[in-house]
Amino acid sequence: MTNFQTLMRTELIEALKEFKFIWLTLFFVILGVTQPLINKYMDVILKNVGGADGITIDPNRQIPSSAEVLLSTVSGQFNQIGLIILIISFMGLIAADRNSGMQDFILTRPVLLQSYLLSKLASHWIISMFSISIGAAVSYLYTMMLFGTFSFSSFLFFLILYSLWILYVVSLAILISTFIKSPILIAVTTILVSMALIMLKGFNHIVFQLSPGNILTLAEKQLLSIQDLNYFSIVTCFFFILCNIYLAYLKIKRS
């Protein structure tokens, strides 16, 4: 077994001990179920909680399509609340090792720094995508039950592209962790940068196309079955992921 495999296995076992696979998955399942239910039963919810006073709901309003509901789940739930909780869950992935002295212990052994960083990247990406995939799958099933069928291949391709965005966020957290010691500050900084990349689309479309956040647009277009797609954003996203890991490598090496 290589050093990379050993380190990644250790990270995954630690996540199992902390029940991270369970509570993160439950969280994303709840997020995945919430949006379809709200879209379908908003008028019933308002009526039963007594909050419909002064609110007029058009009985002839157009029922959203399954694609629109899935898109609102991703953009409104996963990319906001979900992303924040996800980042908080791995905010100490480098800082905790450094503060406890574990990083020095590992790197004084015959372990390549590249293996250490890549094991962090791969293990936390696996943890994240395990939870997100189950949450998204539950949302997909609920959406089909309530709003009609939707192409599974389009949903699957969306999930693959969305996983690249999550891989970038993990690499960003690793990079920031090499410069900041406080886990809270790491989480806040990673969240702010990630949100800024998402919101960049509304401020400068050209810059957004060259940013890693553009992979989200490509992923969302899979849900809307848009044919005019720019797959260059995949290359851009991988480029920024590699840059983040390389800069983290340089920072730790010079420390």
UniProtKB/TrEMBL annotation:
| Protein's UniProt keywords contain Transmembrane | yes
Q: Which regions span the lipid bilayer?
A: 21-38, 78-96, 117-142, 154-176, 183-203, 231-250
Which controlled-vocabulary keywords does the entry list?
A: Membrane, Transmembrane, Transmembrane helix
Instruction: State a single Gene Ontology molecular function.
Output: ABC-type transporter activity
Q: Does the keyword Ribosomal protein apply?
A: no
Q: Name one Pfam family in it.
A: ABC2_membrane_2
Please give the superkingdom of this protein's source: Bacteria
Q: Which Gene Ontology cellular-component terms appear in the entry?
A: plasma membrane
The name this protein carries in UniProt is ABC transporter permease
Recite the lineage of the species.
Answer: Bacteria, Bacillati, Bacillota, Bacilli, Bacillales
